[in-house]
Design a protein that fits this description.
The complex is a heterodimer of chains A (301) and B (325).
Chain A: H1 3-6, H2 8-22, H3 24-42, H4 45-49, H5 84-120, H6 122-136, H7 140-151, H8 156-166, H9 169-183, H10 186-193, H11 198-234, H12 245-254, H13 262-290, H14 292-299
Helix pairs in contact in A: 2-13, 3-5, 3-13, 5-6, 5-8, 5-9, 5-11, 5-13, 6-9, 7-11, 9-11, 10-11, 11-12, 11-13, 12-13, 13-14
Chain B: H1 2-31, H2 36-40, H3 47-57, H4 63-75, H5 89-124, H6 129-143, H7 146-160, H8 172-176, H9 182-219, H10 223-230, H11 235-247, H12 249-257, H13 259-272, H14 278-287, H15 291-319
The chains are: A mainly alpha (301), B mainly alpha (325).
Chain lengths: 301, 325
């Protein structure tokens, strides 16, 4: 027996990978993401070389205003003499942290609620889906804004939590649909006859079948979370203790340097746009892996 | 008749949802740490005025009574006074609403029309260079970070070339001049609107393009397209008269589904361009701790979102005779 035969999960992963590899968008997206991941890892290096490279508190003692790129500061410095490159690297770390944790939370919520609604049906289904409808139409950014108006300054984890709480309905609807069709299959019937509890059927028999779909949605949720946090930080309601790309743009904008310091304005926005694009491309390529219909369409010509 | 019943049912749903939002907002605000009085009543007011407002808003009564007063005030249009402007909140909101509606609806209609048109072209040239350029272009512009795009457009077109004003909606010299007529004023507003409109357009048309493209590809596989081909109709007629109208239907749905996303974008655009709309007012009031104004702006936006969703669904039913409620 080869390793591939012994581990069915590995096998299906490799199969998926071979399809994924053919997609140009998927390859570009993955390459960009690896680049951003490297940036996030490298963010620990500059502050370790010299404390003046600390993205938040490190100030170059010889510099009092923003300066263009130089050998000492590869991307220049901001208005306080802080190194832009180290801020950019730290921003990559924050983006991954915010994006992935919010996405995981909203997917877990969406999958659990979608499965429950689809499997239980009747009153619970109606109740949960009406709730989903209601939350789905709410603009997340403005919801976080009004919550900031009520509760004052929000820290980064509260922001992540709110984004997750408001971004599960899309996932739960898809998962509910999938669950509804799975419920009719003989193997669920068999599990019921064998005396399995609702809880066991949902998590043991239905969940493995809907997870690939949920995984696809995660890529889209990651971008939504990153954009929301960035927009919030840009408007000045971010966590003042973190250096995110949105925060950097807020500093450029609020200090009025956007016309004077292109080397400061361009990098953070480009990073937000590119990380969004790369997750988007990855999602589209994964769509093709999971949905054979799309694949066939592309192979006909 | 059936459609009318459906609209009625949906409007009742909207009312219920709105009521839930009102209640949640009330509870969150009263239960949040801190003194609600200090946040509803302007610290600069005279003690007598403050006391009167406090009674009017019911802030001296128990929670249950406060809730009833809150609902009554809401339905009679008493939202309190803005701290910053010192005017009734309702008046400010009514002033800002047309500006938002103007910018927002123009941008949605423009980007949907262009998106549908380009999506049609992309699907027609599927797999060729035109298709790749359009698809990649749509993906890239759709994922641009909106405030950054806005800043760059201002930098290039307003600062470097001075083609457009940097911010605002009107030039004072045109509007204060008694000689300038309606046309001059309209042209002035349009001149201010070009860049915000272009920003929203760039962000949105890509999504519509991609949806139109894939919907068009699905439609072209339908039997009636085959029939049309068999009849010997021209390819252009098949594309524009037979396939495109049906393929455009999912775009209508997606306008409704992406409304929340578009509204976020609208608020960001208004803020960067200081366009005097509701979205900017919400952002501004939150940063000024002007809670009465923030609350009213948020509720108005929520109401608009809910009602627009119904409008989009009804429009869909109207456009697609196969859908009957």
């Amino acid at each position: 027996m080869t390793a591939r035969e012994r581990f069915p999960l590995l096998n299906s992963f490799l199969e998926g990978w071979s399809i994924f590899k053919q997609s140009l968008l998927g390859r570009i997206g993955l390459a960009l993401l690896i680049l951003f991941a490297l940036m996030a890892v490298c963010s620990y290096i500059p502050p370790w070389i010299d404390p003046m490279y600390n993205p938040m508190t490190g100030v170059d003692p010889d510099i009092t205003c923003c300066t263009p790129p130089s050998l000492r500061h590869w991307l220049g410095t901001d208005f306080m003499g802080r190194d832009i490159l180290s801020q950019l690297l730290a921003g990559a770390r924050v983006a991954f942290m915010v994006g992935i944790s919010a996405a995981v939370m909203s997917i877990v919520l969406g999958v659990a609620i979608g499965m429950t609604a689809g499997y239980m049906g009747r009153f619970i289904d109606t109740l949960l889906m009406r709730l989903a409808d209601m939350i789905m139409v709410m603009p997340t950014l403005l919801v976080v804004l009004i919550l900031a108006a009520i509760f004052g300054q929000l820290n980064i984890w509260t922001i992540v939590l709110i984004i997750a709480l408001f971004r599960w309905p899309g996932v739960s609807r898809i998962i509910r649909g999938q669950t509804l069709s799975l419920k009719q299959r003989p193997f669920i019937e068999a599990a019921k006859v064998a005396g399995a509890s609702h809880f066991r059927i949902i998590f043991q028999h239905i969940m493995p079948n809907v997870l690939p779909l949920a995984f696809l949605f995660m890529t889209f949720r990651v971008t939504a979370a990153i954009i929301t946090e960035a927009a919030l930080a840009f408007l000045g309601f971010g966590d003042p203790g973190t250096v995110s790309w949105g925060m950097m743009l807020q500093w450029v904008w609020k200090t009025g340097h956007m016309f004077k310091a292109p080397y400061w304005l361009l990098p953070p926005g480009m990073c937000i746009s590119l990380i969004t694009l790369s997750f988007y491309m990855l999602g589209r390529a994964m769509d093709e892996v999971l949905d054979p219909r799309l694949r066939k369409e592309d192979q006909t010509d | 008749m059936e459609l009318r019943k459906y609209i009625g049912r949906r409007l009742v749903q909207v009312l219920i949802i709105f009521f839930v939002i009102l209640t949640v907002l009330f509870l969150l605000f009263r239960l949040a740490p801190g003194d609600p009085v200090s946040r509803m009543v302007d610290p600069d007011m005279t003690p007598e005025d403050a006391q009167r407002l406090k009674v009017e808003l019911g802030l001296d009564k128990p929670l249950g009574v406060q809730y009833l007063i809150y609902l009554k005030n809401f339905f009679t249009g008493h939202f309190g006074f803005s701290f910053h402007y010192g005017e009734p909140v309702v008046k400010i909101i009514w002033n800002r609403l047309p500006n938002t509606v103007l910018l927002f609806t123009t941008s949605i209609i423009l980007s949907a029309l262009v998106g549908v048109f380009l999506g049609k072209i992309a699907s027609w040239h599927k797999g060729k260079k035109t298709d790749s350029i359009l698809t990649i272009g749509a993906l890239v512009t759709h994922t641009l970070f909106l405030p950054w795009l806005a800043l760059i457009l201002i930098w290039v077109f307003s600062y470097k070339f001075s083609w457009f004003p940097i911010t605002g909606m009107v030039s004072e010299d045109v509007w204060l001049d008694p000689d300038s007529g309606f046309i001059a004023k309209s042209l002035d507003v349009m001149h201010h609107m070009v860049l915000p409109l272009f920003t929203l357009f760039l962000i949105h048309f890509g999504a519509y393009l991609l949806i139109m493209r894939s919907s068009m590809l699905e439609t072209l596989k339908e039997d009636y397209i085959l029939t049309a081909r068999a009849k010997g109709l021209e390819e252009k007629v098949i594309r524009d008269r037979h396939a495109a109208p049906n393929a455009a239907l999912p775009v209508v749905t997606s306008v409704g589904l992406s409304l929340a996303f578009s509204i976020n974008g609208g608020a960001l655009t208004e803020t960067v361009f200081t366009w005097p709309g509701i979205g900017r007012e919400l952002v501004f009031s939150v940063s000024q701790n002007d809670y009465p104004l923030a609350q009213a702006s948020f509720l108005l936006i929520a109401a608009v979102v809910l009602v627009s969703n119904v409008v989009v669904d009804v429009l869909y039913a109207y456009l697609d005779p196969r859908i009957r409620y």
